[in-house]
């Protein structure tokens, strides 16, 4: 308790940890902090827009709601157990996955994490910036020029970068404050549009994105429901690594993660569906349509939602991006990595606003990245089940210290069966995508239905099990003690060698 109190009352300073193992003395977070992060960060326009997206596919109110809710429940049940990676390994999910993919093979997760976070950061800043500028245009006659939008995007990105640089504890505090504020905004929003909501809205069959109901409903279930939790596959360990497995059970952590995902994603998606039905304008985006249809008294809450909601979401994804890029480029500090990915995300926002069609870009983005992330997550979960989620913490850090060897060295740092299985699963997933811009041959065989979430995961796991049936899983005793240095130059691919590194001591800062 003394250390926890000190952490809460000390002078705020930027977090000093990158992807090194968090010492037990600093692991003072609690499962309820996960709920605060996942609820506070998600009650913003990013996930509200996903509710609107289901309606934009031509679905009626109840069809859009069920697609969002069913998809979110499925996705949360799949993703929540990945919270154990950070809890048991003391590092983020990307580095922790080195136990199954190899200390270099875990770069797959780092790249997926950067792509997922960069895309969602762009969507968050885009939606938040739209809300800020459009609201101010009605409140104070601010001209809706490209310059005004650029300034709004830059303001949000700068504030989110500051929160991400200061790190985990600031993110927890920010989202604890954001949760009640955003809840109040959503309640006010329902009051503002309640009389305009047609609860019997049947949808428009002539506007179905994939031509008929069930393929379109399944597209919505994957792209606006399942994709929400899947976007967190590499993020959960960023927070659970600060929770002590000596004081909190894995069951409590998984339960808190699942609860936070469901509450944090379903509530804004339902709000997005209801308000989209009330204000839908096919010629305008969701945010612009909402602002133009809103009563004057609700403009300030929209402005607050654009600012506070975007800060919560963009703060956690920027923090994650900084960690993942730090893991990809060990010589780059976490702070430098965070600033770099923030600048990249802003570039994507400008392209999304001024060059690309935002709705089609978002759909394509979530389908493709779901196809890449799902087999990685499925293989990681399979590895966790086979090893009872036990990790050798020092051996996971070999690559970060630019060394060789350890229990997870496999073949030159890569577990080839896991890597090949991920490639197979991803390829099957991409060929199973179905959207207005692309329908893969596997989706064609399924009458145009997007089955990428299911086929990519199953293909990855089946391939992994076939390639590793004769290989005994590596289950080193979980320990924070360092491995002994070794002088061997090239560890065996079949036997887990000791780390040829200084695994003891503080991690990279």
TrEMBL record:
Transmembrane ranges, per UniProt, are 34-55, 61-87, 107-127, 147-166, 173-194, 214-235, 256-278, 298-323, 335-356, 362-386, 407-431, 451-471
Q: Does the keyword Calcium apply?
A: no
Compartments in which it is found: Membrane
Name the domain of life this protein comes from. Bacteria
**Keyword terms:** Membrane, Transmembrane, Transmembrane helix, Transport
**Feature: compositional bias, Low complexity:** 476-493
Record-stated family:
Belongs to the purine-cytosine permease (2.A.39) family.
Name assigned to this protein: Cytosine permease
Tell me what organism the protein belongs to.
Answer: Streptodolium elevatio
């Amino acid at each position: 308790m003394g250390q926890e109190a000190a952490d809460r009352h000390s002078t705020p300073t930027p977090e000093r940890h990158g992807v090194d193992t968090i010492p037990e003395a600093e692991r003072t977070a609690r499962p309820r902090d996960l709920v605060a992060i996942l609820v506070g960060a998600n009650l913003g326009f990013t996930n509200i827009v996903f509710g609107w997206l289901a309606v934009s596919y031509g679905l009626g109110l109840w069809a859009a709601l069920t697609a969002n809710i069913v998809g979110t429940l499925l996705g949360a049940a799949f993703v929540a157990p990945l919270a154990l990676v950070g809890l048991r390994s003391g590092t983020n999910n990307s580095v922790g996955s080195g136990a199954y993919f190899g200390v270099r093979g875990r770069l797959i997760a780092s790249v997926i994490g950067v792509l997922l976070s960069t895309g969602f950061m762009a969507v968050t800043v885009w939606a938040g910036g739209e809300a800020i500028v459009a609201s101010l245009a009605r409140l104070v006659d601010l001209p809706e020029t490209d310059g005004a939008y650029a300034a709004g995007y830059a303001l949000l990105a700068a504030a989110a970068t500051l929160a991400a640089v200061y790190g985990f504890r600031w993110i927890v505090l920010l989202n604890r404050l954001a949760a009640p504020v955003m809840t109040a905004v959503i309640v006010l929003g329902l009051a503002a549009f309640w009389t305009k909501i047609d609860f019997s809205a049947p949808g428009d069959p002539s506007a179905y994105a994939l031509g008929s109901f069930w393929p379109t409903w399944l597209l919505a279930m994957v792209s606006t429901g399942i994709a929400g939790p899947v976007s967190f596959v590499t993020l959960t360990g960023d927070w659970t690594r600060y929770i002590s497995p000596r004081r909190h059970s894995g069951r409590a952590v998984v339960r808190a993660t699942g609860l936070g995902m469901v509450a944090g994603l379903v509530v804004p998606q339902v709000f997005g569906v209801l308000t989209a039905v009330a204000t839908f304008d096919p010629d305008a985006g969701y945010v612009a349509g909402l602002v133009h249809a809103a009563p004057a008294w609700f403009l300030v809450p929209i402005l607050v939602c654009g600012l506070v909601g975007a800060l919560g979401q963009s703060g956690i994804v920027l923090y994650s991006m900084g960690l993942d890029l730090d893991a990809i480029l060990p010589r780059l500090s976490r702070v430098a990595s965070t600033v770099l990915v923030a600048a990249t995300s802003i570039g994507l926002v400008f392209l999304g606003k001024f060059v690309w069609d935002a709705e089609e870009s978002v759909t394509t983005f979530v389908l493709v990245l779901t196809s890449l992330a799902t087999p990685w997550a499925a293989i990681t979960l399979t590895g966790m089940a086979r090893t009872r989620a036990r990790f050798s913490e020092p051996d996971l850090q070999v690559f970060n210290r630019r060394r060789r060897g350890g229990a997870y060295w496999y073949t030159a740092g890569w577990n080839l069966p896991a890597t090949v299985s991920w490639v197979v699963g991803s390829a099957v997933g991409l060929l199973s995508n179905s959207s207005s811009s692309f329908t893969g041959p596997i989706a064609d065989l399924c009458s145009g239905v997007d089955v990428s979430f299911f086929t990519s995961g199953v293909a990855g796991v089946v391939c992994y099990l076939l390639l590793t049936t004769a290989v005994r899983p590596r289950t080193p005793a979980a320990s924070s003690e360092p491995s002994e240095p070794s002088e061997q130059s090239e560890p065996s691919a079949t036997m887990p060698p000791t780390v040829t590194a200084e695994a003891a001591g503080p991690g990279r800062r």
